Amino acid sequence: MSTWYDMNVILIQTTLTTLLLALSIQVPLRFGVFSFAGVGAFGIGGYTAAIAMVRFEWSTWPAVALGALLAGAITLLVGLVVQRLTGLYMGMATIAFTLIVSVLAVNGGDWTGGAMGLYGALGEISIPQLAVVVLVVVGLLQLTELSSMGRRVDAVRDDPELANAVGVNVVLYRRMSFLVSGLIGGLAGAMTTLLRTTITPAEVNFHLVIVSLTAIVVGGSRSWVGALIGSIIFVWLPTWIAFVAEWEKVAYGFIVAAAAIYLPNGVLGVIKDGWHRFRTRDERARAAAVAEEA
Amino acid sequence: MQDVLNAATLGSIYLLFALGMALVWGTIGILNFAHGATFMFSAFIGHLVTQRVELPMLVIVAIAVAVGAAMSALTQLLAFQPILRRAKSQHAAEMRILIGGIGIAAIPLAIAQRETRSSPFGFQSTYSAEVMEIFGLRITTTGMIIVLCGLGIGIGLTVWLRQSRRGLALRAIGVDPETTAGMGVNRPALAFGTMAVAGGLAGLAGALLTFQLGAIAPETGDQLLIKAFAIIVLGGLGSMAGTVLGAYILAGAESFVLEMNWGTWVDAVSFGLIFLILLVRPQGLLGRKEVRRT
Fold it and tell me: Would you kindly state where each structural domain of chain B is located, as residue ranges?
């Protein structure tokens, strides 16, 4: 077990940070908000933490906290500005926000290190610490998936008018989804940057949007479990299948397209459907028998 | 004046690229994220062919147009059509089409990056550009062809969409697909044709830009995709004249930024425009509210 752990430390670390990034996109989607601002928050969090460490010599955890909070605050502001947009327009406006973050980073001069990015942000984050942070985030998200809170979130997504009618404050919920997405995205950015010790503007690009979106779509967009499945698939697949490693990007393209066409609810959806069929098999057999007699 | 002419050439390239996207999105409601990949891959196939034999310009352009049309039509047939058939609501279909397009776009991009090792590629052609001088302004023959093609096709498409029966049918689909189908318009066939035309336009833009610049990088398509979105939003979705206008406005603004030596801010122009227009005038300059899809 421990040799396996030692051999795959980097992959475990990448899985956890990818999961956080994927969650930052998934949270607004679960609230019915088509926002990619989480990736912009990733950039803001990463840069803030790196600047705090390199320029002001802060220690690791305050820098991470500052990155997450600042990213959350800015994303909430963006949310307030774009909240009346819907669907694709919201999606593209938030993608534009994300890309503006990267243009700002290029033009930040000494602060952001320009196109070369920032180096030497040596954070002290161990894998267990990272895992604890991820567990806390996932635990809090689980609360929004359970019981009445989960049903309110579902209503806000699937039928905002109905949600309004039964007294759920849709606008407030949607604003909160921006805040949460920004906090998680900033956390992901700050931790990823301090683990890698560098951040460059080129990292905060459209590709990052695609990676996180892909993980959610393939895994399942309704629950953090789906984001976890997606992150595991995308980080570990190249190590499992040599063919995939060679044609990595082509394979990803096929997987994403196929998932969009055939698996609207991702792998998690298939598993849930399968479990449901398994549990209700007696009932269905009885119903079929009754239908045959009649 | 020379700068204006250069901006016009740039704007014509943007226009040729954006026209296909605007046509498809404004009528059959598909925001095709694989458009940039179609654009790039058509030029790439032209590059592969001209590595074997040297060809005149017209043949290369014809090849690129044919490849683009075929790719786009296949995308429609294999991905978007099945998604539209399976999806329950327009909103769900939109998001899955977006994601499916992103997945499909990754495939040709990865193949081209692999073959060229991410370095720019060009054509070997018997054609060589000559510099002409009109009223003291210098323009290459390629630039001339691009401007004429851009304006000609842009205006032609606008008029066709307004005057012809097919154009009427397409515009009707843009307003109310259900009723249009009820009035005897064959939606899948028309959608198929529209996608093929859009792909052909992408191929044309790809070949012409490659002739103009000498070589293009595999990633060029992705950058153009965001710019084209800015152009369509600026001009107003569903308005071809708006797209023509938007393309030249964006090219003019970018040329101005370059002229002022703010080179690193060029990308911020299109991202900023998206943001600004969506907030101030979401229907765009020439768009009408009722045609807008959300």
Answer: 2-218
